[in-house]
Amino acid sequence: MKTKIIGILFLTGLMLVGKINAQNGSAGILIGASTTSVKLSDFRNTAMSAAKGQGIAGFEGGVYGKFGLGPLYIKPMVLAGYQSGQLNINYEDGTSKNADFKDGKLEVPVMIGIPIFHFIGIEAGPVYNWMFMVSENADPGLHLQQSGLGYRVGANVQLGLLNVGLAYQGLSNMSNGSSNTTFQSPNELILDVAIRLGGGK
Q: What is the pLDDT of residues 15-46, one digit of tens each?
């Protein structure tokens, strides 16, 4: 079911690419690599007291559209990402251990940007994320909050059909008092490369 949902969203994204290219905007595809830290909190149904991970590496890929709003532009994206690394986990009884951690997320950033010198863009906007896959061997009672909001800020350089971008992103999937555990990825650094598929600038 989750795979079908992801497929439908990407198909919708590709249709939007074609529609935007047929109008005055532009659209394309992008891939990127990232590094971040991870923090888990608000534990329920488990004896864990803290869990953190540094140097969590990942990648993302997807489609984007871009069209002008006067002196600004709006750039929505539909991205699928994967991350992996190790968590350092502390338990209430004072013991600790390291555990492998992997996650897959669907992210929908909506960026508002301003072009500078015609080839540099500065942009920022909110990000919705949905965690469709989590693999960890920390504790069978651990259930992460799957969805949440965050932000992304960055800059990019347009080189013909090629765009190179660097962004800083923070995500927070809060438990909201449920039985799920809060998942935070507060300082993700993303380097991506995008290719424009026709359309404008």
A: 454 444 445 678 999 999 999 999 998 887 77
pLDDT in tens, 168-178: 999 999 987 77
Asked if residues 139 and 170 have their Cβ atoms less than 8 Å apart, the reply is no
Amino acid at 33: A
The CATH class of the 2-199 domain is mainly beta
Q: Tell me if residue 21 falls in helix, strand or coil.
A: helix
* CB proximity list for 8: less than 8 A, separation 6 or greater: none
Torsion of CA 63, 67, 69, 75, to 10 degrees: 10
Answer yes or no: pTM beyond 0.90.
no
Task: Give me the phi and psi of 142, to 5 degrees please.
Answer: -85, 120
3-state secondary structure of 71: coil
- Coil, helix or strand at residue 117: coil
> Is residue 108 a contact partner of residue 152, using CB atoms and an 8 Å limit?
no
For the chain, give every domain's residue range.
2-199
| Cα dihedral sign, 181-135-189-159 | negative
